[in-house]
Amino acid sequence: MGVDGLDWVRLREGIARGALPHFAEVLGSGAYAEVAVRSAVPGLSSTEHGMVSPVLWTSVASGCYYFRHGVYDFRNGMLGAYPPPLFESSHVRAARIWDILTLHDMASLVVGYYVTHPAYPIKGVMVSDLFGEVQSRDAVWPPSRLDELAARLGSTDYEALLRDWSTIGQESVVLSNAPQQSEGMAEFERDILHRFTGLSEDEIARLYSTENPRFGQLIRYRLIYPYLRDDRFHRLFLTLLPEENWRFATVYYRLVDFVSHGFWERGHAFSDDYLRRYGQVVDKAYAWIDQCLGEIRAGLRPGDRLVILSDHGFTAKPGDQHLTDTGDISDFGYAEHAEPAVLIVAGGPARGEIRNVSLLDIGPSILDALGLAHAETFDGGPVPKLLHADAPRALPRVPEYPYTPPQLSASMTPGEEQAILSRLAALGYIE
Fold first, then answer.
1. Partners of 253 in the β-ladder
2. What string of H, E and C letters represents the secondary structure of the chain?
3. Contacts of 385 (CB under 8 A, 6+ apart)
4. How far apart are CA 334 and CA 311, in angstroms?
5. Which of 83, 174, 252, 408 has the smallest number of Cβ neighbours within 10 A?
6. What is the average per-residue pLDDT within 419-424?
């Protein structure tokens, strides 16, 4: 269970308040670690770009530094194009967990994981991170299941899902940059805002007024879009999890990361009115992720190992920053990525705190638990006794796991790629 941006301080505070019962249970009965992040990105660690999601999650899945797996930012400037394209699955240069399992005829379920679009052949099912947002039928492997998976979300087929999401995009600025008039706001948007914020109906109407259209656009990018995105992948994962005896299954959530970038209030002197409106957004995102965790736990089988992982935490940006009660959210962004990342393991032999764990150790630990040998090209290694009592196994090392990047052409339209870039800009990642 990959939860982008899950922070140890915030998590422990939520557990202490009794607001995160499922996290409390797994933390109390399993093993945990404060995971080193910057050491996994040498040379990049002094910049914000060294701790960005595509880099870190690719390192997690491959056990390799970025200069081995090839993903070093959101956009691939090595291709020589300007502006450079977003990193895609065909740009990854090292085998990831599901690629290695495919070599050993072991089935994987991969849902929404970073840099998996276009989806490509593996033994199992891959739902790419852009499923439902791009027209390409490369959003799923095998592609024959694309319409079926759309039907699991209530659409008749994938084209219908895209039409539904395109409508959401037009109204919620998910696939469009067009400002939205308050009178045309969809009911689901109001529901999300009432669930996560303290905004009144009048304040919601003002938020989306044509006088300040950017306010509504930003709250859609930073809250409504990631919630809808995560909810879609979570529901798919729950329906696919019992389908087969997967050797490895993963689902990735980004709501916590997006709302932490947009609504982090810790460490700053905000007005009481601001805190009433937005002060609970991050905590409520944590509560929703806790609910997802409970639903995943209910679908596990005896003997399953549950790994909960983040790629980084958060901290307040330095400086005496203050947001007045004018309602201007265009200056949101008072948090930055920080160490450590969160690791919690339930169902394994280990209990309590484990020290000296790096993001680079997670992939090798999972492979070791599945009985697969350590590769000389791994920059991390299995954490002793984390996932099974004999870890690391006394297996002969292999030089490397052969991997040929999928030969897939870019499958995003210019408009689809621009929508992604606009969201990254709204979070402060790019200009």
1. 3
2. CEECCCCHHHHHHHHHCCCCHHHHHHHHHCEEEEEECHHHCCCCCCCHHHHCHHHHHHHHHHCCCHHHHCCCCCECHHHCCCCCCECCHHHCCCCCHHHHHHHCCCCEEEECCCCCCCCCCCCEEEECCCCCCCCCHHHEECHHHHHHHHHHCCCCCHHHHHHHHHHHHHHHCCCCCCCCCHHHCCHHHHHHHHHHCCCCHHHHHHHCCCCCHHHHHHHHHHHHHHHHHHHHHHHHHHHHHHHCCCCEEEEEECHHHHHHHHHCCCCCCCCHHHHHHHCCHHHHHHHHHHHHHHHHHHCCCCCCCEEEECCCEEEECCCCCCCCCCCCCCCCCCEEEECCEEEEEECCCCCEECCCCEHHHHHHHHHHHCCCCCECCCCCCCCCCCCCCCCCCCCCCECCCCCCCCCCCCCCCHHHHHHHHHHHHHCCCCC
3. 348, 349, 350, 391
4. 19
5. 83
6. 82
Q: Where are the domains of the chain?
A: 2-426
Q: Which residue has the higher pLDDT, 331 or 135?
A: 135
pLDDT tens for residues 25-55? 999 999 999 999 999 998 875 555 568 899 9
Higher local confidence (pLDDT), 357 or 182: 357
Least confident of 123-132, 182-191, 324-333, 351-360: 324-333
Measured distance CA(253)–CA(223) in Å, rounded: 13
Nearest to 312 by CA among 254, 378, 232: 254
Q: Which of 8-17, 127-136, 283-292 has the lowest mean pLDDT?
A: 127-136
The CATH number assigned to the domain with range 2-426 reads: 3.40.720.10
Mean pLDDT of 61-71: 95
Mean pLDDT of the 150-154 span = 95
* Beta-bridge partners for 110: 126, 250
Residue 361: pLDDT over 80:
yes
- Which residue's entry shows tokens 């408009």? 415
